[in-house]
Design brief:
Helix content is 33%, strand content 29%. It is α/β, with parallel strands linked by helices.
């Protein structure tokens, strides 16, 4: 299996644990220097995929190559050439940031002649230069996240796997983290990042949406939004719980999702709007505002999941 100019290629990759199929027939590729996002809820199969790509977990079916190396036969070649930041990245709390980075530099056999300069550069990149002598346990979650990234790239890997890298981090720190990833991609590093934050997809060149082990969508963020069927409306009403219940029973409504105090309602066409207004008014729902809305990736994902749930279960799937 050749890389064809891609950093990663996956063809019908699957993984089962006994009778449970965690990943089913997943196919996609990542061009070199691209940021690819895998979106989906916990349990969708994202971590299982990354563990297969990283040579940690053998696949049950299909094939894949990372940087041109087969994930079944050349796992050690892959491990030497990738950076892997897991959900529970192993930082050593009793070491300082500088000592942590030095430790991983030793694991990855970074030449001693280059080590001092590289560690200093990574501390500077991560904004940790002024914290380099503090114990890691004293760092905030955002600083530990940056340190974990620095440790993962100490050997300058051309491919980076980030598994839920911003879980539990505040929005400002999440944005700053993604700016670091952008800079790396600009230097030619290929990135595969998993997340359940839909807004983080905006940072990716392409995204794959996963649900129950399957890849249910694959495209650029803007293209996925354009593919949302029907017409999306934003509804401000009272009581919203009653409105949601009524809307979900209407044939002309394709999907309903809660966005704070508002409802996003995907209807078959703009011509369905009067019918919806009449049904809500008849039930005593007070409509303050019902107006067109720009679809978010969360709207797209919810619609795709609703469609997927409507399919009959296949053999080997948990109900």
């Amino acid at each position: 299996m050749t890389d064809g100019g891609n950093a990663l290629e996956s063809i019908r990759l699957s993984r089962s644990f006994g009778r449970f199929c965690a990943v089913r027939d997943v196919s996609f590729s990542i061009p070199r220097g691209e940021i690819f996002g895998l979106l989906g809820p916990n349990g969708a199969g994202k971590t299982t995929l990354i563990r297969m790509f990283s040579g940690i977990l053998p696949p049950s079916g299909g094939k894949a190559a990372v940087l041109g190396f087969d994930i079944r036969l050349q796992t050690e070649e892959i491990k030497r050439r990738i950076g892997y930041m897991s959900q529970r990245f192993s930082l050593y709390n009793d070491l300082t940031p500088r000592e942590n980075i030095n430790f991983y530099a030793d694991i990855y056999s970074v030449p001693r002649a280059e080590r001092g300069r590289r560690v200093n550069d990574l501390l500077e990149m991560a904004g940790l230069a002024s914290h380099s002598s503090e114990l890691t346990r004293a760092l905030s979650g955002a600083w530990r996240q940056r340190l974990a990234l620095a440790c993962a790239i100490v050997h300058q890997p051309p491919m980076l796997f980030l598994d839920e890298p911003t879980a539990g981090v505040d929005p400002v720190s999440r944005r700053e983290f993604w700016e670091l990833i952008y800079a790396m991609a600009g230097e030619g590093v290929s990135v595969l990042a998993t997340t359940h934050y839909m807004d983080e997809a905006e940072y990716c060149n392409r995204i794959g949406m996963m649900f129950q082990g399957e890849l249910i969508a694959l495209s650029e963020p803007d293209e996925l939004r354009r593919q949302l069927p029907g017409a999306l409306y934003q509804l401000d009403c009272e009581p919203s719980e009653l409105a949601e219940s009524i809307l979900r029973r209407m044939p002309s409504v394709l999907g309903v999702s809660v966005h704070g105090a508002l409802l996003h309602v995907d209807i078959q066409s703009e011509g369905s709007k009067p019918e919806i207004e009449a049904a809500l008014a008849e039930a005593g729902v007070s409509i303050r505002r019902l107006e067109p809305a720009l679809p978010s990736l969360e709207d797209v994902f919810i619609q795709l999941v609703e469609k997927q749930r409507g399919k009959p279960a296949r053999a080997g799937e948990n109900p």
